[in-house]
Amino acid sequence: MERSLIERTAAEIARGVNRGEHSAAEAVDAALARVGDVEERVGAFLTVLSDDARNRACAIDERVRAGERLPLAGVPLAVKDNMCVTGTRTTCGSRILERWTAPYTATAVRRLEDAGAIVIGKTNLDEFAMGSSCENSALGVTRNPYDLSRVPGGSSGGSAAAVAGYEAAIGVGSDTGGSIREPGAFCNVIGFKPTYGRVSRYGLIAFASSLDQIGPLTRTVEDAALVYDAMAGYDPMDSTSIDRPVEPTAKGLLESLSGLKVGIVRQFDTRELGDDVDEVYDRAYHDLEALGAELHDVSLPTADYGLATYYLIAPAECSSNLARFDGVRYGSRVEAADVQAMYENTRAAGFGPEVKRRILIGTYALSSGYYDAYYVRAQKARTLIARDFEAAFAEVDLIACPAASSPAFTFNAKSDPYSMYMMDYYTIPMSLAGLPALSVPCGWVTPPGGALPLPMGLQFAAPLFSEKLLLGAAHAYESATKHALKHKPEVGARG
Amino acid sequence: MADVTLTRYQAVIGIECHVELKTLTKMFCGCPNEFGGEPNSKVCPVCLGMPGALPAANGEAIEHVVRAGLAFGAEIPAFSKFDRKNYFYPDMPKNYQISQYDMPLTLGGEVKFWREDGSMSACRLVRIHLEEDTGKSTHAGSGDGRIAGSAYSLVDFNRAGVPLMECVSEPEIHSAEDAVAYLESLRRTLLALGVSDVKMEEGSLRCDANVSIRPAGSTELGTKTEIKNMNSFRSVHRAIENEIARQIEVLESGGRIVQETRGWDEVNGVTHSMRSKELAHDYRYFPDPDLVPVEFSRETLESIRGSLPELPWRRFERLTGQYGVEPKQATQLVDNVALAEYFERVVAASRHPQQAKNLVLGDLSRLANETQIPVAESKVTPEALAELIALIEAKTINSKIAKDVLQRLWENGGSPKSIVESEGLAQTSDPAAVEKFVDDVLAANEKVVADYRAGKTNVAGFLVGQIMKASRGKADPALVNELLRKKLG
Predict the structure, then answer these.
(1) Same structural domain for residues A127 and A179?
(2) What is the reported pTM?
(3) B55 with A102: Cβ contact below 8 A
(4) Parent domain of A319
(5) Interchain proximity B51–A375, CB inside 8 Å
(6) How many CB atoms lie within 10 A of CB B450?
(7) What is the interface pTM, i.e. ipTM, of the complex?
(8) Is B53 on the interface with A (CB under 8 A)?
(9) Is position A155 annotated as part of the catalytic site?
(10) pLDDT of B278 above 80
């Protein structure tokens, strides 16, 4: 039986459009219809751009009729709402930008549009990408399509849920400490963070500039590769983007793990995560071996400092990055008698508690008298963590480890900030080292009490600029195991 | 203040300058870097600090600072970086300023400057760093433009993101005169380098002075105050003089100097305390994660060094030393590079600096003023002027004729030699010919001659004039005088 348009991968949709088997308009209409059907339950989007999407789809169809072939022709795209798209509301999930319209388009989004993708909406996120469940959004609740009583993960939870719920074929998110990989794992999709500097950050509203990286959320590794190939590359508008050729990844993805050396991190003991979770990872590592990989024990002695390091550097940068939201030029303003009081009122009303917490931590860490003890030491720790990875990658080609500390949890389950921060324990070290890493579905756990099975994600990390190898290995693992296909989302899979 | 009191103290002054660089575009975006314009007409997402916008450093601005550093003999570290200076202000779009904290583009160096009497001195630099300018606030509804009592404020971001060079001197200037001389030299150098318009009235040069005093002979620094709001070199001079006097008065009356910022009040000629409660600002500097470090290769530095023009202080030294030009005139020439180069070409061609100086700064400059045509663009080539000097030196023509020839050159150009020849303007030095003019005039003015002989010797001038007139100005004046004296006995 032929799969419906919404169930098709980006590769299939683009092929269909390029071959004239169906139009981009049909693909977009199908996606918008699906949004209409499930969005009330999922809540992936903060803004749906029906008219814009239909107009752009017609334009793509024209181009294809005129003979153009586009790698993402007519592919419905969900964009995390911290990326600017000209003329659309761009909120960061925050009251302070609730009514702000972006005057320009982020480079990464523009490149996807140039490749034929069609933005169908802007997705929910933890406010300013600070969180791991989307619960920190001030503007909406997003539910996990595989269990509507649970969170989709975060901060790119909206894009993950949109893709998992078949509302969009592909999504883009941003990952600062795990914000693509963790929701990817929670929502049974691929969540891929490229090497820092591979994708331009121009137009991505900054949380922590030295860590933020845009990447794809997709239902297949091949789609992640297609999205990456379209977005990656130097951008003069982002000085930290890397001016060095990008090796295309989507063509000729690996089919086997044979001969690959995969490191299992000694310090990441999955027995601490509970028997059912431990069993999934144990099984995943065995599968890698069964597929021809050589498993090696590797050591990341400083990885345990990742969380502490991250929670100094990221808040320090965010305390400065978010200073611009002051009510003077754009965004919400709460009037007051003088400018100081206006700042205070505006920011008190505009930011949620987690954002305020991090601004306070960061301001403190940068203060004179504390700078050396906190910020400088954190930078040194960051260097040590990167060196640990370098040493490990002298021994192995890839590292495999969990993508998150648990499967998706229920709403309000992590009310103390530290337990929420712990969700990113396995993803933060790679972010600090700037490494490319992704999460790929690796099995399911069924919580007691006859609840729905929950997806789990295996994280692969690779040396800097080794996207081709990383995606290839994930593709080989995905093809052989097909874990993602074992269960359907609670909201169903057919339009 | 009695001079006696003044000499018991030494003033110690350091100057901090902010210089807007002349570049095609702003420091971190593609907006034009131009003064003025409709408010908020030269802005983009980057210089407005829009969400998601990122800075990209302007290479031209970086090179300008390096040029300035090399001109002042500064060290250019191989590695430099940008930092964020965090504080909230409505005309600062991001609420942090991209600046440089501990690794500026240049370190050390010195500004050589000269005084009115021509003596040279120097003041060392601490550093020069690069940052972005802020926007401008206007406060409306209060009548006096102050924020206090205003109904609302407007911000113009045209200036936001304009590249700004901060140049910090060591505290080793000891008088208001030297402070101004330092600033003049700094301004002239930056102008010669082409890195800025350096106009105080347009705000492309802004400066603050750190002033302290100490007992003469002491090497310890006294408590300093920082003087702001000085809008001209004249106000720099007045403000520093005033502040030195104020500090002496405070100490003499048994008081203590308070470390503070003081604003110069141009109208009342005093400084007043601007100290506010946020004196201890914590700017929370940290490296800007949006920008990459600036690195220079030896080759780049050498190629910039090789492109530096002659520096004003060097020209001043040569003009006063080698050519004997008075300090005031030398300064005039330093400020008019085209005229100075013209002058030096005339000197080279004529090997006669004194005549060159008289003609270029005297007659030619007067003609230039009258006609509003710069000397260097006039029809008088340096070679023609050198030829004219040669004619004067050879006594082929006298100075009066020389003026006429110069006038013709100014109007029509050409060669002085051929003008003199074709118009028969050569001086008549033949004693017989001159004697004939003398005799004719004496014969025609018997009464005057009689008066002279009767003791009214002041009529000699009239007779000389008559003789010169009869010779159509060509008679050698020295010979005329000699013959006349002899004949009148």
Answers:
(1) yes
(2) 0.91
(3) no
(4) 304-379
(5) no
(6) 11
(7) 0.96
(8) yes
(9) yes
(10) no
